[in-house]
Design a protein that fits this description.
Blueprint: H1 2-16, H2 20-27, H3 31-39, H4 46-56, H5 60-67, E1 78-83, H6 85-88, H7 91-94, E2 105-108, E3 117-120, E4 135-139, E5 149-153, E6 159-167, E7 170-174, E8 183-184, E9 190-199
Parallel strand pairs: 1-3
Antiparallel strand pairs: 1-2, 3-4, 4-9, 5-6, 5-9, 6-7, 7-8
Helix pairs in contact: 1-3, 1-5, 2-3
Length: 202
């Protein structure tokens, strides 16, 4: 498996347009280590594998998938953790304490940042645009603007998904399903992220 992993590392390095010495510098190792990784004479430890995946903007599992001869979609730009609605309420703090490899991760064509996460939609308040069971990719490091689809924490620890609307000095959270009422944004509301993408695939 070391040889296959080495070939995968070389392929991803070349696709990224990096020389061996440039990858070594980004990874924090000697130039010779990259040569040994790519030849299969030496395998990176788990911390180096995680860093390599970060540099290549893929997940560790995708790195192994490529080594095993599985196809990685050309538009995949990274992976994000699929989290719970309770976790989403305070995700920027929770992710800093997340164990690497912990929990389910999903691929995305959105280029994720440090705190980007995925949520599986429950309920039908945002149908038909966001059907129940779909997954949204959420960017908490972005400020919402009028019309943004947002994850907001109100009335407790669990987050909710609505469209953010500004009408003069008043701000609202609007469901897309007409069966549900529009609600005024509470003063103690906390924005947990802006929805950047929707997918039906895990």
């Amino acid at each position: 498996m070391r040889k296959e992993l080495g070939l995968a590392i070389k392929q991803l390095r070349e696709k990224k347009g990096l020389r061996q010495n440039e990858l070594a510098e980004a990874l924090g190792v000697d130039h010779g280590n990259i040569s040994r990784y790519e030849s299969g004479s030496y395998a990176p430890d788990i911390s180096k594998l995680e860093k390599l995946a970060e540099i290549f903007e893929i997940g560790v599992h995708e790195l192994f998938a490529l080594a095993e001869g599985l196809e990685i979609g050309p538009d995949v730009r990274g992976t994000v953790p699929l989290i719970s609605w309770v976790q989403a309420g305070d995700w920027s703090e929770a992710i800093d304490n997340l164990t690497p490899g912990e929990g389910e991760r999903i691929t995305t064509t959105y280029k994720p940042r440090k705190h980007t996460y995925g949520l599986r939609i429950k309920g039908d308040s945002m149908e038909p645009k966001f059907p129940m069971g779909c997954i949204v990719i959420v960017e908490p490091d972005e400020a919402p603007h009028n019309g943004s689809y947002v994850i907001v924490r109100q009335n407790g620890d669990e987050a909710t998904f609505k469209q953010y609307i500004e009408d003069g000095s008043t701000k609202y959270l609007k469901p897309l399903n007409d069966r549900y009422p529009i609600m005024e944004l509470r003063k103690d509301a906390v924005f947990c992220g802006v929805v950047k993408q929707m997918t039906m695939e895990v």
